[in-house]
Amino acid sequence: xxxxxxxxxxxxxxxxxxxxxxxxxxxxxxxxxxxxxxxxxxxxxxxxxxxxxxxxxxxxxxxxxxxxxxxxxxxxxxxx
Length: 80
Ligand code: FES
Prior knowledge:
Layout: E1 2-6, H1 9-13, H2 16-29, E2 37-41, E3 52-55, E4 58-61, H3 67-79
Parallel strand pairs: 1-2
Antiparallel strand pairs: 1-3, 3-4
Bound molecules: FE2/S2 (inorganic) cluster.
The site of FE2/S2 (inorganic) cluster (FES) has 12 residues, from helix 1.
């Protein structure tokens, strides 16, 4: 599974850096390093919906406050 987090300026202001850190930590805690790869991307033109996160091509809107729930639902939920 490939997770891409937008680190363009608008998403950066909404906390994309923090989400990258949260996801990295969640990947380690859940021991899914070999199943999930985390990438960054520049602005993907959906700034209104930031922070933009793509999983295998599908676009989601995530905030630092919702990152953990999102990870459990959309990432761990699909890996099982
Ligand atoms: S900065 Fe993330 S979509 Fe534009």
